[in-house]
Amino acid sequence: MSDTIPAHDPFALFDAWFAEAQAAEPNDPNAMALATATPDGRPSVRMVLLKGHGRDGFVFYTNFHSRKGGELAANGHVALLFHWKSLRRQIRIEGPIAEVTAAEADAYFASRHPESRLGSAASDQSRPLPDRQVYLDRVAALRETYPDGNVPRPAHWSGYRVTPLRIEFWQDRDYRLHERRRFVRDGDSHGWTSTLLYP
After folding, report:
1. Would you tell me how many other CB atoms lie within 10 Å of the CB of residue 131?
2. How many Cα atoms within 13 Å fall on the side-chain side of residue 164?
3. Is 60 helix (H, G, I), strand (E, B) or coil?
């Protein structure tokens, strides 16, 4: 069986696979695992949502005061993993992060459902919560202040763009005869080196 993962532009290939996932996955086709690490190399991983992508990178949003926010501030290199079970595919992405602009963060925050904006503004993400009602009461208090849900974006809530240095595409095949193709960025250029990998 010859390989079917093309060796050309990884961004075009991501776009094609992502479009298929959006059509096939029953829930959150933009869900991705985000792996971070502390300065001494202790890893952690959680699911986040891809909120933008293009040739300049892959964007997600978070609370900078959360555990992940602290790890991102201390170690600006991350790994992403998309797993689309219905398509039997994975994409792995590795690279450094950079904060999105305030204008980008404001625009995305304003696009969210009003309840989501209230929930984000009320949350001390990752910090101990004595009782769930405490959080719900904070949301309710903000709702009284901002009945239309147009709470301003908190300064500690924004996004990051991952600039990929490596992108790997994996396609499941029968009898574990899988296909893997890795793209590695050529130094500071916009070119890529493509290599097939043993599964």
Report:
1. 8
2. 27
3. strand
> Mean pLDDT of successive 10-residue segments in the chain (199 residues)?
76 97 94 95 96 96 94 96 95 98 96 92 90 94 91 94 98 91 86 93
| Sequence-ordered alpha helix ranges (H) in the chain | 10-24, 67-74, 102-111, 114-122, 132-145
The CATH class, in words, for 10-111+155-197 is: mainly beta
Residue 1: predicted pLDDT: 43
- Where are the chain's structural domains? 10-111+155-197
What is the distance in angstroms between the CA of the first residue and the CA of the last residue of the chain?
13
**Half-sphere exposure for 12 (CA within 13 Å, toward CB):** 6
| φ, ψ dihedrals at 76, nearest 5° | -85, 30
Tell me what pLDDT residue 8 has.
85
The two three-digit tokens of residue 114, written as one number: 């009003």
